[in-house]
Amino acid sequence: MISRRTFIPRSDLPVAAARPGSGAAGDRSPKEPETATRRDVIAAQGPDAVAMTLTVNGIARMFEAEPRVTLAEALRGALALTGTKIACNRGTCSSCTVWLDGTPIVSCMILAVDVGNRAVTTIEGLIRDGNLHPAQAAFIGHDAIQCGFCTPGMVMSCAALLDRDPRPTRDAVLAAISGHLCRCGTYPHVVAATLAASEEAKS
């Protein structure tokens, strides 16, 4: 009868055949893996705070934060730009939407350290020379604001749409805000506000 004690000593034959230098088909070169020569190419950062510089609303801002800090957290914390709201913190509600090189993104899903040289625009950065962006003014005029958590993100997406297309259709507005969750149900007012801002641009 074959027992574990009698089987294990005999089972070393196929193992020995596969050892490097044995001449078997499974033989591998004794050279070190190629990745070993690439060691230290990317320097590790953290867990302590590291120095960062972000261009936010046209201004280079220097601060220190742990590498795990998201852009949304850096904006609200180290940079004290609290207009950007964090709601779900999982990239599903779009409340924390800002622009990255002019494109709306959810800022809770990108690390601040990964932003690099790209330009960040927040809700505060839409104001120019003391004047509100047409989307901001229209949101106020059409009562598209209730609890306020989703409002900055909604404005950022609608403002990006208007900058890209000053005369969007209703369907285009709905597409622009399709990723935004509003617990207060202000969607009809948001659409009306954006279309109104579009009408002002036409005149």
Structural description of this entry:
32% of the residues lie in helices and 12% in strands. The chain is built from 7 helices and 5 strands, in the order ααββαβββαααα. It has helices at residues 4-10, 12-17, 71-76, 134-141, 151-164, 170-176, 187-202, and strands spanning 50-56, 59-65, 97-100, 103-106, 119-121. The longest helix has 16 residues, at 187-202. It is α+β, with helices and mostly antiparallel strands and 203 residues long. Helix 4 (134-141) crosses helix 5 and helix 4 crosses helix 7 (187-202). The chain has 2 domains: 50-123, Beta-grasp domain (Ubiquitin-like (UB roll), Roll), CATH 3.10.20; 134-202, [2Fe-2S]-binding domain (DNA polymerase, domain 1). A 5-stranded mixed beta sheet has the order 2-1-5-3-4, covered by helices on one side.
In short:
This protein is 32% helix and 12% strand. The chain has helices at 4-10, 12-17, 71-76, 134-141, 151-164, 170-176, 187-202, and strands at residues 50-56, 59-65, 97-100, 103-106, 119-121.
- Proportion of helical residues: 25-40%
Integer tally of domains: 2
Strand content: 5-15%
> What assembly state would you assign to the polypeptide chains in this entry?
single chain
Observed structural traits:
32% helix, single chain, 5-stranded mixed β-sheet, 5 strands, 2 domains, 203 residues, alpha+beta, DNA polymerase, domain 1, Ubiquitin-like (UB roll)
